[in-house]
Amino acid sequence: MQKSRFLKAQWKNLLMLNYQVDPEILKPYLPAGTVLDIWQDKTLVSMVGFMFIDTRVLGVRWPFHINFEEVNLRFYVKHFNGKEWKRGAVFVSEIVPKSIIAFIANNLYHEKYSALPMQHSVTLKEDNHTEFLYQWKLDGAWNKLGATVSNQFENIEPGSHEEFIFEHYWGYNRINSNKTTEYQVEHVSWQVAKVKDCIFEADVKTLYGDAFVPYLTAKPYSAFFANGSEISVRMGEKILAAPTLP
């Protein structure tokens, strides 16, 4: 039976800078019953910036919590439910500007949200490009995630690197060594645009720990941008760890 809808919103202007990492650093975050989802023998994490627009929680538009930024660090997993593999994402950290959002997500979904001052900008350029910039303030300094993006969008090609990064319709969160929360994310396939001149300047050690510093301070393996769409997040359920295929 399909779970009831918890959240409905639009996710817009999704920028993803993707970094290759040693899979060992992700093991502490790996939910029970999942295995890492690998792209061409590479283990990737993504720094993601995007906008929540027209947000409704349990059907209600809560005042001052309708439109806001989010920046997160995520990686990719698979879960075999006995019949099929489900491809999903796991979040190492998620940043939003509203503390109540962080409180609800952390308690209902065992997410790892924190609330920090945030801002964003969209700047039209003269060469048929647009500059997108997401910022969050930590210890008095503004951290940055941004890029210049083409104004021409195309469909995602089946089997492409973009498909691997964007086409994940499940979320998994570690509860303990043998229990995981699983939830479904619904949206249409997005269109993507080419990215150039990307920037990521952040206090990686404070935000994500020493293990991520060598990887997130290097040049991204790839950078993608999607226009986004309306999304729905279903209520989560707990799953117990089970043997998974290699």
Structural overview:
The protein is mainly beta. The protein has four helices and 16 strands. It has helices spanning 99-109, 161-166, 204-208, 213-216, and strands at 5-20, 34-36, 44-57, 68-80, 85-96, 113-115, 118-124, 129-138, 141-150, 154-155, 170-176, 179-186, 191-193, 195-201, 222-234, 237-240. The longest helix is centred in the middle third of the chain and has 11 residues, at 99-109. The mean pLDDT is 89.
Task: State the gist of this model.
The protein has helices spanning 99-109, 161-166, 204-208, 213-216; strands at 5-20, 34-36, 44-57, 68-80, 85-96, 113-115, 118-124, 129-138, 141-150, 154-155, 170-176, 179-186, 191-193, 195-201, 222-234, 237-240. The protein is mainly beta.
What key phrases describe this protein's structure?
four-stranded antiparallel sheet; single chain; mainly beta; globular; seven-stranded mixed beta barrel; 11% helix; 246 residues; 54% strand; 4 helices
Annotate the secondary structure layout:
Layout: E1 5-20, E2 34-36, E3 44-57, E4 68-80, E5 85-96, H1 99-109, E6 113-115, E7 118-124, E8 129-138, E9 141-150, E10 154-155, H2 161-166, E11 170-176, E12 179-186, E13 191-193, E14 195-201, H3 204-208, H4 213-216, E15 222-234, E16 237-240
- Helical proportion? 10-25%
Termini Cα gap: 28 Å
Structural class: mainly beta
Spatial strand arrangement across the major sheet: 1-3-4-5-11-12-15
Beta-strand residue fraction: over 45%
Average of the residue pLDDT scores: 89
Biggest β-sheet: count, sense, barrel? Answer: 7 strands, mixed, barrel
As a whole number of angstroms, the C-alpha radius of gyration is: 17 Å
Order of helices and strands: EEEEEHEEEEEHEEEEHHEE
Put simply, the count of helices is 4
Global outline: globular
> Total number of β-strand segments?
16
Q: Which stretches are low in confidence, meaning pLDDT under 50 for 5 or more residues running?
A: none
